[in-house]
Design a protein that fits this description.
Elements (H helix, E strand, L loop, with lengths): L2 H15 L19 H8 L12 H18 L7 H16 L2 H7 L4 H4 L2 H18 L1 H16 L7
């Protein structure tokens, strides 16, 4: 995982905390809900900001907000369920409203004070749906590992 993606993942939960501090229902609710999987994944998996210094909060925020804007432009594939779609909207809206000071405050933030459990579950559903849509080979690997597990003896050899 790239440094940018690690840092973005590390701040995603606290970013959700900001939902309680910001108005919801922003621009992401008007994003398309019929994106092609290929177009969505091109943005969802984009690592063009991987060369950003993870300590440069301004550059990091710019890269994350640019990716959120691109996600809002492309939207979600039509097979995303309602919870994943709502998680997409929460994530994009919250990230879009953040400023550099908010990023600095995240290190000391308690996620339980920032976001409801319901919204956190929705954003998790979005990232799960995105991961499943964009990395189907992991599902295939899981199936193959399951098949191998079925072939293992159930009792240890004596």
């Amino acid at each position: 995982m790239t440094t940018l993606k690690r840092r973005a993942a590390a701040i995603s939960a606290p970013l959700l905390l900001a939902v309680t501090l910001t108005a919801c229902g922003g621009g992401a609710s008007g994003a398309p809900d019929d994106a092609s999987v290929e177009d969505f994944c091109d943005v969802f998996l984009d690592d063009s900001g991987s060369d950003i210094d993870p300590e440069d909060n301004g550059a990091l925020l710019d890269a994350i907000q640019e990716q959120a804007d691109r996600l809002a432009d492309v939207g979600t594939p039509e097979d995303f369920d309602e919870e994943a779609r709502e998680g997409f909207e929460v994530f994009v809206d919250v990230v879009s409203d953040f400023d550099e000071g908010d990023i600095e405050d995240l290190d000391s933030a308690d996620p339980g004070d920032i976001v409801s459990e319901e919204d956190a579950d929705k954003v998790t559903a979005f990232f799960t749906a995105g991961g499943e849509a964009c990395t189907p080979e992991l599902d295939d690997l899981e199936d193959e590992l399951g098949d191998l597990e079925d072939q293992l003896p159930s009792e240890p050899a004596s």
